[in-house]
Specification:
Blueprint lengths: L2 H4 L3 H13 L3 E5 L11 E4 L4 E4 L3 E5 L2 E7 L6 H17 L4 E5 L4 H10 L5 E4 L1
Parallel strand pairs: 5-6, 6-7
Antiparallel strand pairs: 1-4, 2-3, 4-5
Length: 126
């Protein structure tokens, strides 16, 4: 999710962190949640500016680093797609995957972005 909406959705991020822990992940990092170290920032530079993205949740399982992003409807679909494309690329470089965790009422939005922007991710209903 985009940084602007994280504060108001901390309960969902916490639910995802617990889900990741139950699935056996280690070295879990969670953005903006007390008791967890924050994930590393990812920077995408272009000729005009740079975009900084922070994953919602990351975890390591069987030597692979996976990225978990909470999907909340937004008017900034292209910005979300850019973040997810970057996270997907980084995940594959670390032999991991990108998981888009979707609360009730946001599945269609997530599916449309994944299809429109050809994002390699597994969509999980929360």
């Amino acid at each position: 999710m985009l940084t602007e909406t994280k504060e108001e959705n901390l309960d969902i991020i916490e639910t995802v962190a617990e889900y990741v822990k139950k699935k056996g992940y280690e070295n879990i990092r969670v953005d903006l949640l007390d008791g967890y170290e924050a994930p590393s920032k990812l920077v995408r530079k272009n000729s005009e500016h740079e975009d900084i993205y922070i994953p919602d949740v990351t975890g390591v399982k069987r030597g692979r680093k996976d990225y978990f992003e909470v999907v909340i409807k937004s008017d900034e679909a292209s910005k979300l797609a850019s973040k997810w494309q970057l996270l997907g690329t980084v995940a594959r470089m670390k032999r991991g995957e990108l998981f888009l965790v979707v609360p009730k009422g946001h599945f269609r939005f997530a599916s449309e972005i994944v299809k429109k922007y050809s994002i390699e991710a597994e969509v999980i209903k929360l």
